[in-house]
Amino acid sequence: MSSSRADTADGPRSESYREVQDSPEFAELRSRFRKFVFPMTALFLVWYFAYVLLGAYAHDFMAHKLWGNITTGLVLGLLQFVSTFAITLLYVRWANRTFDPAADALAARIEGSER
């Protein structure tokens, strides 16, 4: 291998990364990712901060006993965990069906063009 060659033993040339980043396929992939992740993140943050604000300012509401010693605050707190797992499940299903196949196709196209 000559020293003037841009390829390395570790991987493709840096120019090919720029080509991928500038490609319409990559832009579409990035757009798909953002259309899923940003709204999901915003939704979760609103839900989380609503819980925190209710805990800080709505003591009577959060202390309301639903049955026995189970309060509204406890139920909402447990729902924070449930929503985290639900969002994770939604993301994994979405990624497996939508995002990963497109990313794999782009990777295969790029890797094939470098050989």
UniProtKB/TrEMBL annotation:
<keyword id="KW-1133">Transmembrane helix</keyword>
<dbReference type="InterPro" id="IPR007436">
    <property type="entry name" value="DUF485"/>
</dbReference>
<feature type="transmembrane region" description="Helical">
    <location>
        <begin position="70"/>
        <end position="92"/>
    </location>
</feature>
<keyword id="KW-0812">Transmembrane</keyword>
<protein>
    <recommendedName>
        <fullName>Clumping factor B</fullName>
    </recommendedName>
</protein>
<keyword id="KW-0472">Membrane</keyword>
<feature type="compositionally biased region" description="Basic and acidic residues">
    <location>
        <begin position="7"/>
        <end position="23"/>
    </location>
</feature>
<dbReference type="Pfam" id="PF04341">
    <property type="entry name" value="DUF485"/>
</dbReference>
<feature type="region of interest" description="Disordered">
    <location>
        <begin position="1"/>
        <end position="23"/>
    </location>
</feature>
<feature type="transmembrane region" description="Helical">
    <location>
        <begin position="36"/>
        <end position="58"/>
    </location>
</feature>
